[in-house]
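Notes to self after the Tuesday call (sharing in case useful).
The group wants a holo model before anyone commits to mutagenesis around the pocket. I volunteered. Ligand is magnesium ion. Logging inputs and output together so the record is complete.
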Amino acid sequence: MLIDMDYFFVACEEIKRPELRTRPTIVGADPKEGRGRGVVMTCNYVARKFGIHSAMPISTAYKLKPDAEYLPMDYSYYEKKSNEALSIIREFAGPVEQVSIDEFFIDVSDRIKDYDEALAHAAKIKDAIKERAKLPCSIGISNTKVVAKMACEKAKPNGIKLVKEEEAKAFLAQLPVGQLYGVGSKSEEKLQAMGYKTIGDLSKANIMELMNAFGSFAVELRNSANAIDESEVVENYEVKSMSREFTFEHDTKKPEEVVKAIKDLSAQVGKEVESKNISFKVVTLKLRYSDFTEHLHSKSIRPTNVLEEIAKTATELYKENADSSKKVRKLGVRISGLTDYKSQKRLF
Ligand code: TTP
Ligand code: MG
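Result:
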């Protein structure tokens, strides 16, 4: 099963302020009466009726619905709610693989005998999360991760969708190729250009032709399109990376302003590191300039949990790489190569 929380950040906000449930509500950057920069992180389904969606510029959202509720992120609260959902989910599952803050694959093959039981089990999980964590979710069920994930998309919002093994190929075949799990917008463009419109088209693709365009990823692509996915649900106590981004109010060339923003972002990332008891070994700085060109600069360091290393390394990356002739519009600080002490303990 794939469990994905519905409109997660705003659903969390609705717990704090139930009156938001009937109002279009957005979590994201400050709209500043239409002059705001940055994006919508997410919005509730009331706001989606007005055409607002994740990743949309906040200024566009403001044009569509100036009197919506605009809220800043309260990340530590969302994390707390995510952990609450996770511990409920664990009661109903064997292995749990967390994909993101609001998305979990679970293997329930040792808890159920047939599809009817699978549906009943999913309903129990959904009810428990709603009752106890006060959060709505959707659940996709199938015999592979790929199809479970895509079934969940169709179940949204607040639903459960089962795709039986024998129905999986037909279920996928009718969908546009861009909806296949693992296909991003670049791959979608390529596939479209090669004449594959639907997942069904892709399922019959000539493997040599596909390999020419996608290398070894071709095999996985075609297998997914045929509902073939052997990957298991793997416990992962370890998240792959942690990052924070920031868009300047006014683009800037001033090193002291950029360095200050890098320090703030690093401190935010550091807070998360501290709460999770992990160490990291790669620091990445993302620089987007006012001409919208974007550059990633990374540095590997000795695995550490010393928080000061984040700001120090990110600042070095800025000083070594920044193009001083251009103004900076947006910054990101990310750490990766994470090791979780808990998962280490499990191994030994
Ligand atoms: P999603 O599960 O993609 O979206 P959602 O839960 O808001 O809505 P849906 O009902 O369609 O599942 O993402 C989970 C959270 O991650 C989301 O609440 C906010 C955050 N997020 C971002 O910060 N940036 C993004 O671009 C997206 C898509 C999500
Ligand atoms: Mg979600």
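Two things stood out.
The first strand starts at residue 2 and ends at 5.
The CA atoms of residues 279 and 305 lie 4 Å apart.
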